[in-house]
Amino acid sequence: MQFVLASESARRVDLLRMVGYDFVGRKSGFPEVSLSDPAETAVQNARGKALAVAEGPGASAGTVVLAADTVVYVPGSGEVLGQAKSEGDVRRMLGLLEGREHEVYSGVAVVGGDGDGVSVESVRTRVRMRGLSEPELLAYARLGEGVGKAGGYAIQGTAALFVEGIEGDYTNVVGLPLSTTSRMLEEHGVRWY
Ligand SMILES: Cc1cn([C@H]2C[C@H](O)[C@@H](COP(=O)(O)OP(=O)(O)OP(=O)(O)O)O2)c(=O)[nH]c1=O
């Protein structure tokens, strides 16, 4: 059975390879939406990415397609933070996150294979970030690491220095909740072993 990851994210590719899955990557080209609810945003984007590839050229009937989307949310803020697009975005987003707790939501979608229709789930991890001084905020923004990352930081990089603790799946923060993903893949006939 062919297993396709509908993603260009190096983090998702690395996570899936790390645990032993055999797959090919494909770009979805899906234009991401941003809604007021973080879980709904992540799920709708993951579903859209998976279906765009499953219904696109090159996917046969038996192909299993996996896609994900990650967003960051400060409870009560009403603003869902997607990818930081610039250093300025990183500075602004980290300013919202430093010194408090936030939530990271990844939506996961799997379509095709043995399963019926599209399976979608969202996973939440709570992250507590320490306070950051203005020089530290600017130094991190200048690094560039946070550009292209949801919420403007990478827990797997230098921003590990800022994270005091998490509650939930670490891999969910990096972009793909592996435990949930492997259960969903299994339901569609894809195993890591
Ligand atoms: C919070 C956080 C996010 N991220 C990343 C994971 C995602 O790649 C990115 C959020 O962007 P997404 O829009 O979820 O995905 P993407 O555009 O990078 O990739 P795809 O092709 O699959 O659509 O933020 C980290 O790498 N580390 C972190 O600590």
Automatic annotation (TrEMBL):
<dbReference type="GO" id="GO:0009117">
    <property type="term" value="P:nucleotide metabolic process"/>
</dbReference>
<feature type="site" description="Important for substrate specificity">
    <location>
        <position position="156"/>
    </location>
</feature>
<feature type="active site" description="Proton acceptor">
    <location>
        <position position="69"/>
    </location>
</feature>
<feature type="site" description="Important for substrate specificity">
    <location>
        <position position="70"/>
    </location>
</feature>
<comment type="similarity">
    <text>Belongs to the Maf family. YhdE subfamily.</text>
</comment>
<dbReference type="InterPro" id="IPR003697">
    <property type="entry name" value="Maf-like"/>
</dbReference>
<dbReference type="InterPro" id="IPR029001">
    <property type="entry name" value="ITPase-like_fam"/>
</dbReference>
<dbReference type="GO" id="GO:0005737">
    <property type="term" value="C:cytoplasm"/>
</dbReference>
<protein>
    <recommendedName>
        <fullName>dTTP/UTP pyrophosphatase</fullName>
        <ecNumber>3.6.1.9</ecNumber>
    </recommendedName>
</protein>
<dbReference type="Pfam" id="PF02545">
    <property type="entry name" value="Maf"/>
</dbReference>
<dbReference type="GO" id="GO:0047429">
    <property type="term" value="F:nucleoside triphosphate diphosphatase activity"/>
</dbReference>
<keyword id="KW-0963">Cytoplasm</keyword>
<comment type="function">
    <text>Nucleoside triphosphate pyrophosphatase that hydrolyzes dTTP and UTP. May have a dual role in cell division arrest and in preventing the incorporation of modified nucleotides into cellular nucleic acids.</text>
</comment>
<keyword id="KW-0546">Nucleotide metabolism</keyword>
<feature type="site" description="Important for substrate specificity">
    <location>
        <position position="11"/>
    </location>
</feature>
<keyword id="KW-0378">Hydrolase</keyword>
